[in-house]
Design brief:
This protein is α/β, with parallel strands linked by helices. Helix content is 30%, strand content 18%. It has one domain: 3-Layer(aba) Sandwich (Arginase, Chain A), CATH 3.40.800. The strands form two sheets. An eight-stranded parallel beta sheet has the order 4-1-5-10-9-6-7-8, sandwiched between helices. A two-stranded antiparallel sheet has the order 2-3.
Length: 315
């Protein structure tokens, strides 16, 4: 029997256009009416080893349709809260990326984030490699001060290497230089790393608190949260390689010994209660290294849960 369109379409996850969570697409950046706006930043020109994160935004959007059944929000029986029920989310498409041109690509990402901020929405930026955090942070230059929380395997605090200052090893150093970044909390940093000892010393001297996965586990989520200034504005930068590669193989620089899903979710849920999350980026998803697609699904799932908790706590 044919479906009657008079009662509305079923629109199952595998049908239709892959906007983030199948939320409305709004490509007119001067006409944004939303609480959260999803912006793709498919730039991987800052990558030092395996490229491919230019396909991250597309993969995360496709994966996010798994969670788009058209129900009125997402009920969480543990919290007894229906998340995502009445917050306005739009997908604003991608910033224009120009191959091999870091400066112009970054400038175009910054324009997109500034447009979202001007509309009063929270930018949620899908990377791309971690260098895209640099224009994201720049876009906040006229906003109130904020504390940067990075969840990552790598410190990303290189000042300059072979003349490179805006690659994916530099973003936290560039952020720390900004007067409106009041401090950094860097969580998950571990193992054979991209930053030498002097980078750790420089980070701490510039106001950074650095904890490995094992240190976070020893402290527990509540104690980790206590180290982050309460009641502040937060910018959150999540590198998918913060998670263990057993659950997130699709990334350019996997590092064993990473976080589990619930460790990060509980941390993010606590942050949403502790202060005001003003901006988010999630970077380094490289789908070509993950035939199963679980990395992109993880990225989509963590973002939808995070958005839901931020919205619930603002209410």
């Amino acid at each position: 029997m044919a479906h009657s369109y008079e009662t509305g379409r079923l629109d199952l996850p595998f049908v239709g256009i892959c906007s983030f969570g199948k939320y409305p697409i709004q490509l007119d950046w001067d006409n944004l009416h939303a609480d959260f706006a999803i912006l793709g930043a498919p730039f991987d020109g800052g990558t030092q080893w395996r490229a491919g994160t230019r396909f991250g935004p597309r993969a995360i959007r496709e994966a996010s349709t798994l969670f788009a059944f058209g129900h009125a929000g997402a009920y969480d029986h543990e919290d007894d809260v229906t998340y995502l029920a009445d917050c306005r989310i739009v997908d604003v498409g991608d910033a224009d990326i120009i191959h091999t041109n870091t400066d112009q690509s970054h400038a175009n990402i910054e324009v997109g984030v500034r447009k979202i901020l001007q509309a009063g929405a929270v930018p949620v930026v899908l990377g791309g490699d971690h260098s895209i955090n640099i224009p994201c942070i720049r876009a906040f230059s006229e906003q109130a001060p904020m504390h940067l929380i990075q969840i990552d395997a790598h410190l990303d605090f290189v000042d300059e290497r072979h003349g490179v200052r805006h690659g994916h090893g530099n973003p936290m150093r560039r952020a720390a230089e900004q007067p409106y970044i009041t401090g950094l909390t860097q969580l998950g940093i571990r193992n054979v790393s991209s930053t030498a000892r002097d980078g750790y010393e420089a980070a701490r001297a510039m106001g950074s608190d650095i904890l490995s996965v094992r240190q976070c586990r020893a402290l527990g989520v509540a104690a980790v949260l206590e180290r982050i200034p309460a009641g502040g504005r937060y910018y959150l930068s999540i590198d998918i390689d913060a998670f263990d590669p057993s659950i997130a193989p699709g990334t350019g620089t996997p590092s064993h010994g990473g976080f589990s899903y619930y460790e990060v979710l509980e941390l993010l849920a606590g942050l949403a209660k502790r202060g005001n999350v003003a901006g988010i980026d999630l970077v380094e998803t490289a789908p070509d290294y993950d035939p199963s697609g679980i990395t992109a699904i993880l990225a989509a799932q963590i973002l939808l849960n995070l958005i839901g908790r931020i919205a619930a706590n603002k209410k």
